[in-house]
Amino acid sequence: xxxxxxxxxxxxxxxxxxxxxxxxxxxxxxxxxxxxxxxxxxxxxxxxxxxxxxxxxxxxxxxxxxxxxxxxxxxxxxxxxxxxxxxxxxxxxxxxxxxxxxxxxxxxxxxxxxxxxxxxxxxxxxxxxxxxxxxxxxxxxxxxxxxxxxxxxxxxxxxxxxxxxxxxxxxxxxxxxxxxxxxxxxxxxxxxxxxxxxxxxxxxxxxxxxxxxxxxxxxxxxxxxxxxxxxxxxxxxxxxxxxxxxxxxxxxxxxxxxxxxxxxxxxxxxxxxxxxxxxxxxxxxxxxxxxxxxxxxxxxxxxxxxxxxxxxxxxxxxxxxxxxxxxxxxxxxxx
Length: 335
Ligand code: CDV
Description:
Layout: E1 19-26, H1 36-52, E2 57-59, H2 76-83, H3 94-103, E3 106-114, E4 120-127, E5 133-138, H4 158-161, E6 171-174, E7 177-183, H5 190-197, E8 203-208, H6 222-239, E9 242-247, E10 250-252, E11 255-257, E12 262-264, E13 270-273, E14 280-287, H7 290-296, H8 301-304, H9 312-315, H10 325-328
Parallel strand pairs: 1-2, 2-3, 7-8, 8-9
Antiparallel strand pairs: 1-14, 3-4, 4-5, 6-7, 9-12, 10-11, 12-13
Helix pairs in contact: 1-3, 5-6
The protein binds 3-methyl-2-ureido-butyric acid.
Residues 62, 143-144, 156, 184-185, 188, 208-210 line the site of 3-methyl-2-ureido-butyric acid.
């Protein structure tokens, strides 16, 4: 392979050989009293646009069907009745599945899941082009708190309303590629992506609701967007995969959340980014071969990873004391 010294490109043929049309459907605000029917109508319109632009798949936000209700302190009976889905699809969400089958487009959707035996999860599903649910993910890194904070401007009660996901970070073969899913706060944790890239995920999709204000400390608001993009870009690059992230954003009943929905390439570069804080579809023809360049060289996992030196990552949750010299020493693994 010739290296073009003018461009610095060593990736060979610039024509996209393995192109995947990927759309992200950002949502503007969903207010407390907006109906599921009205929300689903907005999602249907964006699904149509995504398909018309050539998307094989469209990514919707976290908790896409309702307002971001963890900001409200409510009793369990009320919250279950108003915001949780006892089934997926349901009468209100069935039109999404019908249109997906008609348009032959896959999708990712985040919603609040209430199981038959009363467990509650912050969940997403991957739905294929035949409208079949092929994978489910239950959010693992739940942010916020479970107690009432009456002095805070709003609550972040994910730890009250949801249990920690119990099904791991799986990946799924669909639409001719391998896709991993996560939700919002998961995107800030490198373990999320590495567990999926070790299963050869090519795309990670996620939805998010990120309040512009941090109720725990006076974080400068611009850092919310900076850290959101930094997390997507660093992890796309370090794992040689595409990342597609869909926000629910703008002011929901006066509570503002960041936009910035984005599609990030395995180079770490943003290839599409939402400009508004409203319903908006962004799209990219993603070269699924692009990550290979990194995964065969700088991030050739089989060749360069040294898991014998990473044991603390699974042995410790919080930071602790330094390891002793003898604990740090390890025998060399056999080739
Ligand atoms: N829904 C979320 O998980 N939101 C968090 C906020 C609380 C920081 C996020 O990581 O964006």
